[in-house]
Amino acid sequence: MTAPGFRIPARLQDTVRRWTDGAGEAWLTALPRLAAESLARWDLVLERVCEPGGQISLVLLVRRADGTPAALKIGYPHPEGAQEHAALTHWDGHGAVRLLESAPEDGTLLLERLNSEVPLLSLPEGKAMLEALGALRLLWVAPPEQHDFTLVADYVQGLREALARRRDLPAAAELLPLVDEALELSAALLADATTRDERLLLHGDYHHGNVLAAERSPWLAIDPKPLVGERAYDLAWLVQDRLETLAGSPGPEAAARRRLHRLADDAAVDRDRLRGWTLFRTVEAGLWSLDVGDTQHASLYLEFAAMI
């Protein structure tokens, strides 16, 4: 089988190499072969590579045999994305991109084509937050009765263990009060969650960059890392969106708290639970970024966590 000729986006190469500590090199080498197999499997014609594309996925713009435009996504294999196809199947285009075909064993999905050049990031923040919450509400549905989605409680326990290990990083020496608060809050949230029994299908990685304009709906979500749990956990990642803009605004601390309170009230979730999950997820992301050498994002995450 002849591999298609295309250039792997620089961002994809960079993030896979940095985030996988060299383990992703074999996958990058195999990408042309994986693409050729998928193009042949579903009788697709390659148009072009989507640039810059995903951080850990190759996205090819293609046409199906009947001329319909579509997007072929080949993702780096990782546990968080293993159930993307199952979530998209369950949503069936309601609030999210529609799944056309899938080969989950290869991390390959054929998706309806959205307007990748018009994410919610293209809108002013206030309008984007309003649209984002409206689209996210559509995704919060009951999971299938028999499902394999990871529960928030199980996933967070793994994150807590990793955060506790990264607490000893030399660069985290001055962050111990913030890290300890994140660990304490997450433990309390998990303990209390057992009495709430809010088990909804969550996106898991919901932010303005993961919501694109579409023809059949104004906005549709992409790239879920699905979990089952409470809405406040899902909403937390939206609270810390556009950190660069927030950090540069007048009175960023007050602006961060206003954003958190507004989203909590609009989504009818408890403010304290949303703050707790936001703090935990942001601190965890900050120390993970420190661990992989991404000091720029680590600084933004940790500054925001201190604000709230």
What does this structure look like?
By secondary structure, this protein is of the alpha+beta class. It folds into two domains: 10-113, Phosphorylase Kinase, domain 1 (2-Layer Sandwich); 119-307, Alpha-Beta Complex (Aminoglycoside 3'-phosphotransferase, Chain: A, domain 2), CATH 3.90.1200. 48% of the residues lie in helices and 15% in strands. The chain has eleven helices and ten strands. The protein has helices at 10-19, 25-41, 84-91, 125-139, 152-166, 176-193, 231-239, 243-247, 252-267, 271-291, 295-307, and strands at 45-49, 57-63, 69-75, 99-103, 108-112, 115-119, 200-202, 211-213, 219-221, 227-229. The chain has a five-stranded antiparallel β-sheet with strand order 1-2-3-5-4, with helices on both faces. Strands 6-8-9 form a three-stranded antiparallel β-sheet, covered by helices on one side. Strands 7-10 form a two-stranded antiparallel sheet. α7 crosses α10 (271-291) and α10 runs antiparallel to α11. The model has no long low-confidence stretch (mean pLDDT 93).
